Structures are given as structure tokens and as C-alpha cells.
Fold this protein.
Amino acid sequence: MSLPQNKKSSQGRKFFRVDVLLLAGALLAGCSEPEAPPPQALPVTVLSVAPRNVPYALEIMAQTEGAKEAEVRARVGGILTQQLYAEGEAVRAGQPLFQIDRAPYEIAHAEARTRADQTAREMARAKKLLEVDGVSRREYDDATSANEMAQAALRQAQLNLSWTTVAAPVSGVSGRAVKSVGNLITVGADSLLTAVYQNNPMWVRFSLSENEIAKLPGGKLTSATITGVELILPDGSTYPHPGKLNFLASSIDTVLGTRQLRAEFPNAEDALLPGQFVRVRLLAGEHQNVYLVPQTAVIQSDQGDLLMLADQNDTIASRPVRLGEWYGKDWIVLSGLEPGDRVIVDNLLKLRPGAPVAPHAPQPPAAPPQAPASGR
């Protein structure tokens, strides 16, 4: 028995609607985006930290100066005829450095000697005449006084002649010559010829502000507070010889608000030169159970100082910390870390909290390439 026509058409439309819906679902499924792959772990260098005791160190800018910086000045005037030393070389005490024209002083010395010999003879003659009442006591006294004055003038002439040779007052390293051969030297403010610097030991001058002094243990600066003095050279290395304080001002400079100090360092190898800008590291006790992290690992933000850590799941976690002062090239972390924490020390700009990382230990520095063996 055949179905009515309208019933067939209705059933056909129903099957057609189902087919369209299935086709649309298939098309939508084919057009959807593929599932994104998980993010790749970023390789990072981590430093596993452990608590330690670190000396309390305060670094201050300083400048070196010779223990003795003696000016070499002319004591008589005249034309400078010779420079008897090489600038910058070591000189010994008493070594001639300059020669001033001797001729005028040799003439003056000869005249003074002649006058002194004459007055000595006149005094001797007056003494014999006094014994026989040939002269009065007053005439003898006048002769004696004239002789004494002539002898004093002779000694002054001898000194002036000797001062024409200008010698080094102390042993040390000679400085640049201020005057040239042929210049007219005058006694007074313009008499400076050069300087001699005694570099062993070397002195280092520096100062501490009141805020820096307040950071010291007990907030006071005394000779007993400072347990050691080290010197940081301009290249960042530590001078191998420790120093000691040899001057501590008893008052605060009212203009600068600082307290002046001076340290002394041995310098037998002449590794230090006067006038160098260096850093002095004052040691005063030690911090107990603190951590050291590289300066480059610290992120300074509006929320404070942060460190990025690799947690147990090898994902990134930020950690707020409280910092102390620098210790060499590291920060001293006073709080915020635990033993065994793995601090990330590189790729900081690429790090995001919660992202995966592939941590690895710091690589040892590469050995310098060896020179090839020379063949025959």
C-alpha cells in the first residue's frame, strides 16, 4: 500500500534536515582552530643558595696619596742651569735634583771668607795689645764683635752656596719638574721646583657620612669597630695586602657632614700610585646566616627587590627579599630565601611567573685557548 504524497514529502524533508545538520557540524568541526601546544621550557642558569656568615663590609670611594709628599723648593734665587734627575724615577734622600747658577754665590762666599779672615786677624792683634794696655777694653770688644759678625756672614755665604744644589729631602718617586732649565728662580711662593712622593707605605684618604656610620654595628665608628681594611683596585680586584686605619677624625666636618679617615697599605711593589681613585672596604663584624646572590639576579621593582626562583616543578616563582649591602660582586640577602632555593641568574627579561623552565647549574668558565706548539 503506497503512502500518501504529502506524507512522503514530509518525511523526506525530515531526512534532509538531519543530513544538513550533520554536514554543518562536520564543517564547523573542520574549521575550528587546532589545540595550541604546551609552552617550551626556557633554559635558565640557577644558583642553589645556602646560608653562610659574611663579614659586614662597607665600601667607600677613596683616593691614594703618598705617605710623604715633600715639596722640593729653591732656597736661593738665580738661573736654573741643570736638571739632574729623570722625572718619575726613584730618588734617594740627599740626591741632587737641580743646579742653580753658582757663580754669584761663589763670589759672595769668597768675599765673606776674606772679610772673616781680616776680622779674625784684627781681633787677635787687639787681644795682644790689650794684654800690654795697648788698646782699651772697648776697642778689643769692638774687634771681637766685628769678627763674630764676619764669621756669621761667612757661614751664611757657605749655606747659600750649598743651596744652589737642590737635593731631594726624602727618598721616593720624583715628580714632574715645574721649572725648566734657563728659568729665573725666585725665593718665595714661586720657588717650587718639583715634589718627591714616598709611596711605601701608601695612604688612602676617604670619609664616611653620618648615614653610613649609622649602618655600622652599634651605630658608632671607633678603632675597635673596624676589624679589617681592604682595598678594591680600579679593575675590581682586591689588593692582596690588608691595610690598617692610621687616622680617625675626632669630629664631623660641618661643611660636608662627613668624618675623615685614612688607611695605610704596604706598597713595596709600587702597585699603587698617588692620586688613584679606589674603593676602601671596611670590615666590621659579620652577618650571620645570610645568602649571597649575583647583583645581576636582583630585580628592583615598585614592589621592592625580587628574585626569580625555579620551584620544585621547574616553574618560575617570584620571591620578595630584603637586601643588605654589596659584598664584592654579590648582594647580601638578609631575608626572603631558604636553604636550597634555586635562584635564576640569567634570562630575567624573558621570565614570567608560572612559566616552565629548564634549569641547569652555572657553567665553568672556558679555558683560554692554548698556543699551538711550534714545529721545527
The longest strand covers residues 52-73. Residues 128 and 134 are 8 Å apart (CA to CA). Confidence is low (pLDDT under 50) at residues 12-16.
